[in-house]
Amino acid sequence: MAACTYPHMRVADAFMAEAMACEQAVTFAIELGCRSVQVEGDSLSVIKKLVSAAPDKSILSPIIRDISSKKGFFESLTFSFVGRCGNGAAHALCKEGLHHNNPRYWMEEAPKVVVQAAGKDLGS
């Protein structure tokens, strides 16, 4: 298990925040040398943009293109929608990240509140 948080200031909206989180997750997976990754998110519109073959023309297009350009680093990179009730660990990690001004990384562990939320996610 690995976890990370990246502070982002002045994010335009929730869609931008979700797209940036996906971008950071993919970048972190590359840095860790992961070959097969499944990214889950609770923004259906962002997930649809990531799985679509059509070029994105929204404000998110630079982020979507950057993520797509990194697919070659993986044997398998998939994106799937998970409703908010099954995504508590991500939200707990996001809240933890608000306490830090710099990126934070956890290897083979995660903050206790995130581990507890992940356990609840698995039960739902």
Task: Tell me what the structure shows.
The structure is a single chain. This protein is α+β, with helices and mostly antiparallel strands. The chain has a single domain (about 1-124), classed as Ribonuclease H-like superfamily/Ribonuclease H (Nucleotidyltransferase, domain 5), CATH 3.30.420.10. The protein has helices at about 15-30, 45-50, 60-70, 90-95, 110-124; strands at about 1-5, 35-40, 75-80, 105. Strands 1-4 form a two-stranded antiparallel sheet. The two termini are about 20 Å apart.
Put the structure in a nutshell.
The protein is an alpha+beta fold.
CATH architecture: 2-Layer Sandwich
| Mean pLDDT value | 88
**What radius of gyration results from the CA coordinates?**
14 Å
Number of H- or I-type helical stretches? 5
Strand-residue proportion: 15-25%
InterPro entries: RNase_H-like_dom_plant (IPR044730), RNase_H-like_EbsB-rel (IPR052929), RNaseH-like_sf (IPR012337), RNaseH_domain (IPR002156), RNaseH_sf (IPR036397)
Protein name: RNase H type-1 domain-containing protein
Domain RNase H type-1: 10-96
List the SSEs and their pairings.
Elements (H helix, E strand, L loop, with lengths): L1 E4 L8 H19 L3 E6 L2 H8 L9 H9 L6 E6 L6 H10 L6 E4 L4 H12 L1
Parallel strand pairs: 2-3
Antiparallel strand pairs: 1-4
Protein name: RNase H type-1 domain-containing protein
Pfam family, one: RVT_3
InterPro entries: RNase_H-like_dom_plant, RNase_H-like_EbsB-rel, RNaseH-like_sf, RNaseH_domain, RNaseH_sf
